[in-house]
Amino acid sequence: MEREDDVQLIRKILSGDDDAFNTLVQKYGKSIHALVWRKIGDFHYAEEITQDTFLQVYEKLPTLKDPNQFAGWLYVIANRLCIAWIRRQRPAMQPLDDTSVKAIDNLAYERYILEQRELEATEHRHEIVDGLLTKLPESERTVMTLYYLGEMTTKEIGDFLGVSVNTIVSRLHRARKRLQETGEFFQMPSNNQQQNLAAQIENHYKSGEFDKALEISTRALESNPADLEAYGSRWRLIAEMFPEEDGKKRISPEIEYILQTHSGTPEVLSTAYWGYMSLPGRAKNVPSSLFEQILQYPRTEIYLAALFGLVERSEETSQKWHYYQRVIDEFTISDVPVLSWYLLAYEEMLRLAEADRSLANDDYLDELTDGLLKAHLAYCENTQQYFGWAYTTAVEWRLKYNNRLDKALETLDRAEIRLGEAEEQKWLVEHNKGSVEKAHKNISRLRAEVFFRQERWREAYDGLLANAPDYLESLSERFCEDTIDYFYMLGRAAEGIGDCEKARRYYTEAHFAPTPHAEARAGLKRIYHQIERRSTDTFEAFLKAAETEYRIREDTDRETIRQRLITNKHNKKATGFRLETLQGETYTLSAMSGKVVLLDIGSSRTRVHNRQIPEVKIVYERFSKVDDVVILGINDDITTHQVRKYLDEHPVPWPILLDPHGAVRKAYQIIGIPRAILIDKAGNWQYSCRDLDPISGQPLIWMIEALLSD
Fold it and tell me: Which of the residues 30, 53, 140, 224 has the least number of beta carbons within 10 Å of its own beta carbon?
């Protein structure tokens, strides 16, 4: 998986991509551990708190209002867990009537009192800042959180967020000045100050008390001045709880009221905009008049968001191109509010040009790729990520367009030089993105692909062969598009150096794959005409013989993958559950003792799950008459109307159990969905399957057969 910014990763995580969550953990894990260690002073307990932090992140991620504020939100979770840990460690205080203070070690007692006061002061400061943060723009909220709640220095915040100390100081200064101008920065609220309204809504929502959250959210309608954050929380809640039409009928009039009764400041416009975006159809709900108002505030974050919203609702490719062009024309790397969006604009323009080459000539494609690389390198520097990601991405785009391949080779040379630096290697290893050797191999593989495009056949063949992917890792790796392309390139390069037998072998692999390479058959035909044969041998007979050889190799590869899979068992005791269907039927794991159980865990919010339903149906049909096999679906959507809509669109023959709090997902440590869990007859959790290969229900059938035979 490529290294991505927080917003992209969070979107993927919420869509069920566990690899994206792993990347997020790898990105922040060491930083959080270091910060926790500094606070509590115990290395090993810091590891436990770090793990608990990311577990809470996973559970609460759907409640994060602004993914751009993830870093600060993450730190607040870790900090509060530290405070809870410190509370648990402090000794129970005995009554002073019974125990003389003199009997207590003076230094220890004084230290305890100081810690108590410091803890109380910290909690009091948290109450103050929590209330004030709602009054700040999103761009300033994170640094205030880290500085006042996290007690981090400006250097620590800069290191954590990957920006300069000057930037942190500037944001703190603007935030303090903004609060002082409102006269509220030094108004110290009492300890029993009521929790802010938005937080109350979010807390009840997270606890599954949806009606209570909705009831409390009505207070937002009476707030004066308008509690914009509470309005936003209310609209997100309504969008989740109600069917599409009901949600629109409730939310739209409230947004219109806010716009009519409040001046069109960027904060008000932003609240209204994201309210419309919470509804199904997203940007299509936003009135043109609101876009016009937002575009009166150039070079702001909401202005940037509006340009992307206009892209989203545009029907014509030329319109999308126009708005992305405005992003890169009207912002620069140094002033863009969200650097990842600026980078995305370049990527999307290149994707549009890939679909419609009339949009850009070769010179402009060259300019776009250079701009992409520059923005990507700036992003990697700001977020302290692996620079090789930026270099290789730019090369991949040049390969797609066959554009300025000389620059592609220069870029790979720069990547190699950068990879030789200790700092680059440190980032690579610490973020668990593979070894330095693997990174060198990836660069060499790309260089071989450039040679391939330049028809430097010997260099291409040697480079491709030396940097082959591990295509026997899984069925998805064996038959993916990248592997098929790899076989084709090897075949064409072998043909280029005159080795017809190797060319025939690799062309065969590319042609008879489940999704054949479009040019492999033509390659086989050229080889057919070049090899010695009897005049009576036909091309069809040649293909038939090649296919026979291929099927033998494919069966061998499948068996290798199957053996790897079925021998890698978890052997963990399965956690029980008690869940109901929409009809009120109750299912428990204990009632299925003596059977092999397949749990298909998913959500209507995960499009990948919808694509995999046909594969699970194949498995169901295969074992529907086998008494020792039970297949259950578990859906962790928040509201029942979402589940009903999902089942109306995707009817399935197996029971669907409701798990709105994700209890099963947590019990089985599932980060991303969809996920298949296999439990053996003795009640042991044996297999997890993240990706269902679109190949006749495999590998689930292999897993179930293995458990039945035990």
Answer: 224
Tokens describing residue 490: 């090897």
- The pair of structure tokens assigned to 225 is 């001045």
pLDDT at residue number 242: 85
**DSSP state, 540?**
H
Sheet holding 675-679, edge to edge: 572-573, 684-689, 675-679, 596-602, 629-635, 656-658, 578-580, 586-588
How far apart (Å, rounded) are the C-alpha atoms in residues 460 and 411? 18
To 5 degrees, how large is the angle CA 583–CA 587–CA 591?
A: 150
Distances (CA, A) of 125 to 54, 78, 130, 176: 24, 17, 8, 15
Q: What is the pLDDT of residues 590-619, one digit of tens each?
A: 999 999 999 998 876 665 566 678 888 999
pLDDT digits (tens, 9 = 90+) for 508-567: 999 999 899 999 999 999 999 998 877 768 999 999 999 999 999 999 999 999 999 899
What are the pLDDT digits (tens) for 252-297? 999 999 999 888 899 999 999 999 999 988 999 999 999 999 999 9
**How many beta carbons lie within 10 A of that of residue 369, not counting itself?**
25
Strand 578-580 with 586-588, pairing:
antiparallel
- Residue 20 is predicted with a pLDDT of 82
Look up the CATH architecture of domain 6-187+195-199: Orthogonal Bundle (1.10)
DSSP at 455: T
Candidates 1.20.140.150, 3.10.129.10, 3.40.30.10, 3.20.20.150; CATH matching 572-709: 3.40.30.10
Q: Residue 139: which of 174, 165, 114 has the closest Cα?
A: 174
Helix (DSSP H) and strand (DSSP E) numbers for the chain: 32, 8
Name the pTM for this structure.
Answer: 0.66
Residue labelled with tokens 């191109």: 321
Q: How far apart are CA 118 and CA 90, in angstroms?
A: 13
**Which residues are 687's β-sheet partners?**
678
